[in-house]
Amino acid sequence: MTEDGAKDVPGADRGAARVGERSAARVPTRTGRPLYEQLADDLRTKISEGVYAVGAPLPSTSRLMREYGVSITAARAAVGVLKHEGIVIGQPGKAIYVQRPVERGDAAEPDVQAQLDRLRAMVLDLTRRVAELEQASRPRRPR
Questions:
Q1: Which uninterrupted H or E stretch holds 90?
Q2: CA 94/CA 22 separation, integer angstroms
Q3: Helix axes 61-68, 72-84, angle to 10 degrees
Q4: Which CATH architecture has domain 1-102?
Q5: Where are the domains of the chain?
Q6: Contact (CB, 8 A) for 95 and 109
Q7: pLDDT (tens digit, 9 = 90+) per residue, 74-105?
Q8: Is it the case that residue 2 has pLDDT exceeding 90?
Q9: Residue 7 phi/psi, 5° resolution?
Q10: What's the whole-model pTM score?
Q11: CA-based Rg of the chain, rounded to a whole angstrom?
Q12: How would you classify the pairing of strands 88-90 and 96-98?
């Protein structure tokens, strides 16, 4: 571990081992976010910068594991995130290819915003239903 909180990659060139550099990479470990999310972010950035063009293969999960110093599980999870977002396509044991370029907002935030919008709508609906039930359960005044 280095003073900037990055994890050393065994066997990597120490002078050039930075996230985003082509030769070797390190994933910061003190951000509070899972390593697979950080790796997915870095891959997303490289795709948006053209390091991996549409139709080009991503490095294999074992190569990602070596380059970033993460477990094979974290590497597979990062690729899985990109697959779920529709950025890459492929099958286990086969190459993973960039399917489309990364666009602004291709992170988890739009999904979170959509979930918040659905939750707000559910809360409003529940509030309305509770008010209807309260009104229906009130005793009626005789006329």
A1: strand 88-90
A2: 22
A3: 120
A4: Orthogonal Bundle (1.10)
A5: 1-102
A6: no
A7: 999 999 999 998 899 987 678 999 998 777 55
A8: no
A9: -90, 130
A10: 0.55
A11: 23
A12: antiparallel
